[in-house]
Amino acid sequence: MSQIKACLFDLDGVLVDTAKYHFIAWRRLAEELGFTFTEADNERLKGVSRMASLDILLEIGGLTPAEAEKLEMAAKKNAWYVEYISAMDHTEILPGALKLLQELRQNGIKIALGSASKNAMMILDNTGLTPFFDVIIDGTKTVNAKPDPEVFLMGARELGVTPAEAVVFEDAEAGVEAAMRAGMRSIGIGSPAQLGQANIVVPSLADFHLAQLRDLETDASRI
């Protein structure tokens, strides 16, 4: 197995607690449109682009608006979301994230962001995480949403590593699938029931230890 030279991180639900703000904004839009959007519904939106998320929400509400209306809805939801995340600070970094990023940096492992979020830079700047990243690939640079592997392949290319030398940290099924399609190993953050395709699944980054990366280098069972 190849030596691990780089780690690529999803943002929402892995490094920072922004997922709740997406949910609040989508729920607010659904209420305005006259239907209920639940936390269970929100699970379907994890790792999915903004317009694809809107399509899922509209499907739940049984609505088929014109394209121009959809663009207005997406813009409105995003404006609410940006309003919420503008007040974020370092206290919303998830447990274990800062420690792991520091350890990776100290061990010479390259670090990239691989997120569908178009607001990633604002979030990283507000939380003070920006300096940890060698490369930032977000929704402003990619065309295809996960499970397409574009975001991770682009990150590896800009880091100067092969897919086999990279490990992805993800909290969404679509993200784990994207990592697999990219030819990368993955660490699932969350439930084994949802993220069972990942090489390792832990409840949070606080439960992940650097030694587990080295274990992956010698585990030839899955990539």
TrEMBL record:
One annotated GO biological process: carbohydrate metabolic process
Entry EC number(s): 5.4.2.6
Active site per UniProt: 10, 12
Similarity annotation: Belongs to the HAD-like hydrolase superfamily. CbbY/CbbZ/Gph/YieH family.
Name listed for the protein in its UniProt record: Beta-phosphoglucomutase
Site feature location: Important for catalytic activity and assists the phosphoryl transfer reaction to Asp8 by balancing charge and orienting the reacting groups: 115, 146
Species annotation: Paenibacillus lemnae
Residue sites binding substrate per the record: 10-12, 26, 45-50, 53, 77, 115-119, 146
Keywords: Carbohydrate metabolism, Isomerase, Magnesium, Metal-binding, Phosphoprotein
Gene Ontology molecular functions: beta-phosphoglucomutase activity; magnesium ion binding
CC cofactor: Mg(2+)
Cofactor note: Binds 2 magnesium ions per subunit.
InterPro entries: B-phosphoglucomutase_hydrolase (IPR010976), Beta-PGM (IPR010972), Beta-PGM-like (IPR051600), HAD-like_sf (IPR036412), HAD-SF_hydro_IA (IPR006439), HAD_sf (IPR023214), PGP-like_dom2 (IPR023198)
PANTHER family noted in UniProt: 6-PHOSPHOGLUCONATE PHOSPHATASE, HEXITOL PHOSPHATASE B
